[in-house]
Amino acid sequence: MLLKNKQSHMIDSILERVHRRIKLDRILLDKDILTLDESEITDKITDHFQNYANWISDYTPQPDIPDLLYTYCTDPITIDELQSNSLSTLMARQPVIQPLHMK
């Protein structure tokens, strides 16, 4: 039952993580208005996470980008790719030694 319904609680328990909660006792409503009212704080936080913190749309495939470009994005990186890219990055960072021309 715990595995199906409360996976994050189960993982926290297995990893022995302590559940911590942020307590907000004040919040800035507008540019110069600070509130200590719990209902206003709750409303503002709810509004923020429902309307402004919508990260899902940031990670949704864009309709104007062909699906083919997303095909390999989640493939695991192979050791060969990692070594090849690491080497080319290191080579690109190497300073170019140029002779000094003295007059």
Walkthrough of the structure:
It is a single chain. The chain is mainly alpha-helical. The protein has a domain at 24-92. It is 44% helix and 4% strand. It is built from 5 helices and 2 strands; from the N terminus they run ααββααα. The chain has helices spanning 2-5, 7-14, 38-51, 56-59, 79-93, and strands at residues 27-28, 34-35. The protein has a two-stranded antiparallel sheet. Strand 1 (27-28) and strand 2 form a beta hairpin. The chain starts with a helix and ends in a 10-residue tail after the last helix.
Provide the fold topology:
Layout: H1 2-5, H2 7-14, E1 27-28, E2 34-35, H3 38-51, H4 56-59, H5 79-93
Antiparallel strand pairs: 1-2
Order of helices and strands: HHEEHHH
What percentage of amino acids are in beta strands?
Answer: under 5%
Which strand order does the major sheet show?
1-2
Low-confidence runs: none
Structural class: mainly alpha
Q: What is the rounded distance between the termini?
A: 83 Å
